[in-house]
Amino acid sequence: MALTGLQIQKLLPKTNCKECGSNTCLAFAMKLAGKKAELSECPYASEEAKAILGAASEPPVKTVMVGKDTKVGGELHLYRHEKTFFNQPILAVNVGDTDEALKEKVDQIKNYVLERVGEILTIGAIAVTQMQDDSAKYLDAVKTAAESGRPLILRAKNAATAKEAAALIKENGGIIVNSVKENALELAEAAKENGLVLGVTGTTLDEIAEITAKVKEGGFNDILLGIPADSLAQRFQLNTVARRAALGNIKAMGYSFLHFIEDDDIYSVLREATNEVCKYGGVIVFPKLDVALISTIMTLRQNIYTDPQKPIQMEPGIYKIGEPNENSYVWVTTNFSLTYFLVSGEIEGCGQNAWLLLPECEGLSVLTAWAAGKFGGDMIAKFLISQGLDDTQKNKSLIIPGYVAQIKGDIEEGLPGWNIIVGSQEAGDIESFVNATLSK
User: CA–CA separation, 405 vs 424, rounded Å?
Assistant: First the structure.
């Protein structure tokens, strides 16, 4: 029977040191009970606690650190809508030891950045695959890739080369992948010595389960699984089978997945990457850097790994667009991130210097927030005053979304002396609204 949070707390040191990231030992115990944390996060856990709670406190899918600060795994559910997915998959790009202009390719991977709804998205790792038998050339390629500072994924042809490469990336961190069943235990030792993760590959799920069980018995448990499949449909099925097994407490399957996409066809890559993002991928390795393709998958990943109970939102407040002053117009919308970036982008695109007011709407869209009573005229009026705009603005003109034109009267009552202007319904129509109304 699973232990309760109070039962677990009795086994903890009760120092409330906060070094585990929780404010109290009781809070940490509640996380352990809900399998949202691991006992290893407590630096002062006793041997008795480790013996009793160690295995029981692990989430069904083990949390693994790839590099210094990137987690994969730690998942508790089969479906996102059951609560949420926590640690999004790492997107990586593969390079080979035979690639021309390798340094330029590595720099392109390192420097690629996508900013979307306030988040900075980057490529999380670089895979280095040995394409020929020259170990020295492969190690040179690893050194070049390591200059990126990204975690590396090592896919060498033999254990000796892989072990030499592992020592080279100790500072970066990353993953070392076994080439055959027989060298998995040897590479687990190399991973342990260098602070790396072991990517376990095999020909069947049963073989992978056998390997992971032996590696774990040998005292190493930072593992990712390379699930074998002959088709996309089979991969979808096997990923689901493995995740169901993990949630059913089959420990040999309780790890995230590492998947190399081998096909260069853009549509095949898109299909495989989409499947991995939606169906439990931990690390997804693209065959090459394709900006359009990777930005698409980054957007999908951001959507899937957003808490469905908590929309992405901006901090409530007053935001500058351009160089606004006391004569600039004030616009208002909700603090849903996507709404903010669409509206602010359109206003800026019109060449307007403006203030954009974002009241606290719990990250809801305009109509949803209005229907929920979180974007009303009285509330907007009070929030504008609280931000000091009533005192500083000479141009007392407030532009509200066209979808909530009905709140104009309530705002006028709360803001005497202000001119309340009903704007466009859609963000895409802001430019035509500005040209027709504000430019007169």
Answer: 10
Residue range 300-349, pLDDT digits in tens: 999 898 877 777 888 999 999 999 999 999 999 999 988 999 999 999 99
Architecture of domain 317-438 in CATH?
A: 3-Layer(aba) Sandwich (3.40)
The two three-digit tokens of residue 57, written as one number:
């406190």
Q: Specify the CATH number for 64-304; select among 3.40.50.11550, 3.20.20.20, 3.30.1540.10, 3.40.190.10.
A: 3.20.20.20
Give per-residue pLDDT as tens, 230-249: 999 999 999 999 999 998 88
| Residue range(s) in the chain whose domain bears CATH number 1.10.15.40 | 5-53
- Please tell us whether the domain made up of 5-53 is placed in CATH 1.10.15.40: yes
Model pTM score: 0.76
